[in-house]
Write a structure and sequence with these properties.
Subunit structure: Heterotrimer of A, B and C subunits.
Strand content: 15-25%
Pfam family, one: GatB_Yqey
Number of domains: 3
Catalytic activity: L-glutamyl-tRNA(Gln) + L-glutamine + ATP + H2O = L-glutaminyl-tRNA(Gln) + L-glutamate + ADP + phosphate + H(+); L-aspartyl-tRNA(Asn) + L-glutamine + ATP + H2O = L-asparaginyl-tRNA(Asn) + L-glutamate + ADP + phosphate + 2 H(+)
Radius of gyration: 30 Å
Organism: Sphingomonas kyungheensis
Protein name: Aspartyl/glutamyl-tRNA(Asn/Gln) amidotransferase subunit B
Length: 489
């Protein structure tokens, strides 16, 4: 739906939804933000904890410049302002999974300033775009994790995530529907994965969103917002927005008022519930971290970051369209970085762009979906696919024969030429052989021949089908059509 068309229908009329997202993305790096501890997912509790992460006395943080580099590259990917001077602040609060009693973050002087992300809310119409503003990207350390299900009366603390580097990517409140929020999150995830600054695995917690929602009558001032914390899938983000917006409308129309608070989303019921009242910045007693010097980035560092960026989704999509690929197919092919890299390798192997796009988005993606696989698990390589498409292009294989060969490729991993040779699947353009079969088909179907010559031209397809069937699908369809037209005239 477009921005203007999505409305909540309340008893008192239409309501507009205003949405902003704060996305926490775990930085792909060799260590944590301020220590050398590992960050592998799924490790045994408390096996990836340095003395710094555990806040042992006398331990001092040292910034991991790889984490800073990745955040800067992310900012550049969304054309954001990169602040050459930034600073770390302490965000003070007490919680059992926060050993220091504070989180090192960046409130006042973030590493990355304002940028923008262009989205296509309608999957079927990628040309209908909208720009969502990004207010800032700052880096901060993650907290640990409380485990309440290990003992009947005690809670345990796992500090493996303590100190893990996060980018907090804060959008402007520019989204007006669940569809727009979903499109923004998908696009942001794609950019992060292209850049390589975050793996985007929401199920493992590498990327999660805090969802800010408020409602208002169209044209009114902004309403009071709530923040639903740590939502870990695009589908759940959209569901949380839909539920929370309707809840706020019903609350206001019943005479109540929305309270600024933090809420949690229940994935089973699709509802949100209150967690705590929303704190303001002064509640955290922010102040500059005395153990960390400001970050000062020089031009050589920024130039190296910029030079390391890959071709990004929007640029790749435009390049594909310039090759004659449809906007929809270009959007599908660039949605996931692995698929785009696979398709680029297919083009580099010599495949014609339009034929390659048609085959990849229909035959290959269809087969992978049926098998429950992603592109990284494809049993068919780009080079093999290019060989298969070349056999179609030079007339060795018809479309139907190519499908048969592809099925064998999926099962065996063999090269197309080998399959064609071993199984005798080569298409024939032998006019003498085809003419002989056509003569037999015509002789066996005198009634249809009389009807065709009497003006029922739709029967031409019948004769094509009978000829192809008699030749086991191996006849060149173009040759069959030409020879049939002469024989039936």
């Amino acid at each position: 739906m477009t921005e203007s068309s999505y409305r909540i229908q309340g008893a008192t009329g239409e309501w507009e939804v205003v949405i902003g997202l704060e996305v926490h993305a775990q930085v792909t790096s060799n260590a944590k933000l301020f220590s050398g501890a590992a960050t592998a997912f799924g490790a045994e509790p408390n096996t990836q904890v340095s003395l710094v992460d555990a806040a042992m006395p006398g331990m001092l943080p040292v910034p991991n410049m790889e984490c800073i580099r990745q955040a800067v590259r992310t900012g550049m990917a969304i054309d954001a302002e990169i602040n050459r001077w930034s600073r770390f602040d302490r965000k003070n609060y007490f919680y059992a999974d926060l050993p220091q009693g504070y989180q090192i973050s960046q409130l006042y002087h973030p590493l990355v300033g304002e940028g923008a992300i262009e989205i296509s809310p309608d999957d079927k119409n990628p040309d209908a775009t909208k720009t969502i503003g990004v207010e800032r990207i700052h880096v901060e350390q993650d907290a640990g994790k409380l485990m309440h299900d290990q003992h009947p009366t005690r809670s345990y603390v796992d500090l493996n995530r303590s100190g893990v580097a996060l980018m907090e990517i804060v959008s402007r409140p520019d989204m007006r529907s669940p569809a727009e929020a979903g499109a923004y999150l998908r696009k942001l995830r794609a950019i992060l994965r292209y850049v390589g600054s975050c793996d985007g695995n929401m199920e493992e917690g590498s990327m999660r969103a805090d969802v800010n929602v408020s409602v208002r009558k169209p044209g009114d001032d902004l309403g009071t917002r709530t923040e639903t914390k740590n939502v870990n899938s695009v589908r759940f983000v959209m569901a949380a927005i839909e539920y929370e917006a309707k809840r706020q409308v019903e609350l206001i129309e019943d005479g109540g008022r929305v309270v600024q608070e933090t809420r949690l989303f229940n994935v089973e019921s699709g509802t949100t519930r209150s967690m705590r009242s929303k704190e303001d910045a002064h509640d955290y007693r922010y102040f500059p971290d005395p153990d960390l010097l400001p970050l000062e980035l020089d031009e050589a560092f920024l130039a190296a970051c910029r030079a390391s960026l890959p071709e990004l989704p929007d640029a790749k999509r435009k390049r594909y369209e310039a090759l004659g690929i449809s906007a929809y197919q270009a959007d599908v092919l660039t949605a996931e970085v692995e698929a785009a890299r696979w398709f680029d390798a297919l083009l580099e192997a010599g495949a014609k762009p339009v034929a390659a796009a048609n085959w990849t988005t229909s035959e290959l993606f269809g087969a992978l979906n049926r098998g429950g696989h992603d592109i990284a698990q494809s049993p068919v390589s780009p080079a093999q696919a290019a060989e298969l498409l070349a056999l179609v292009a030079d007339g060795t294989l018809s479309g139907s024969l190519a499908k048969q060969v592809f099925e064998v490729m999926l099962e065996t991993g063999d090269a197309p030429a080998k399959i064609v040779e071993d199984r005798g699947l080569k298409q024939t353009s032998d006019t003498g052989a085809i003419e002989a079969v056509i003569a037999e088909v015509i002789a066996r179907n005198p009634n249809q021949l009389a009807q065709y010559r009497g003006g029922k031209e739709t029967l031409f397809g019948f004769f094509v089908g009978q000829t192809m069937k008699a030749m086991g699908g191996k006849a060149n369809p173009a040759v069959v059509n030409d020879l049939l037209k002469k024989a039936l005239s």
